[in-house]
Design brief:
The structure is a single chain. The protein has one domain: Arc Repressor Mutant, subunit A, CATH 1.10.10. It is built from five helices and two strands. It has a two-stranded parallel sheet. It is globular and about 40 Å long. It binds a DNA duplex (13 and 13 nucleotides) through helix 2, helix 3 and strand 2.
DNA sequence: CTAATGACGTAGA
DNA sequence: ATCTACGCCATTA
């Protein structure tokens, strides 16, 4: 079981209409402080893996894109808007309202 | 085996 | 608010 798979498992727990930060995912995956790995893992997400990667944003509440990621440009924003996430005029997300707050649902098996 | 690489976070100026 | 520097590690070729 790769470490990246663990990250994917956590990302899958993000409910619709909510978002999570890289650092948050890292913590939940048991690698506190390693937000980078989360980003690296998401970069390598493929279609075969069913991961809601679009619900993961950076700590500033903004969307981070990579030129070579998926082929699509602002697809992430589009997907989030479809889920009811509102963006500020600055293109940021209100973490105060949309940040995923894992409660007692952290029950996933590996 | 080694080298390259990649969606971040935090602190300080 | 913006910018710079640094930490830091699994996965791939």
């Amino acid at each position: 079981m790769s470490a990246y798979h663990t990250i994917y498992a956590v990302v899958r727990q993000i409910p619709v209409g909510k978002v999570a930060t890289y650092g948050q995912i890292a913590t939940l995956a048991g690698m506190t402080g390693q937000a980078r790995l989360v980003g690296y893992a998401l970069y390598r997400v493929t279609d075969s893996l069913e991961v809601p990667w679009h619900r993961v944003i950076n700590a500033k509440g903004e969307i981070s894109e990579s030129p070579f990621r998926h082929g699509d440009d602002h697809l992430q924003r589009t997907l989030l808007e479809q889920e009811g996430v509102q963006f500020s005029p600055e293109g940021k997300i209100s973490l105060k309202d949309y940040l995923w707050q894992p409660e007692l649902d952290s029950s996933f098996e590996f």
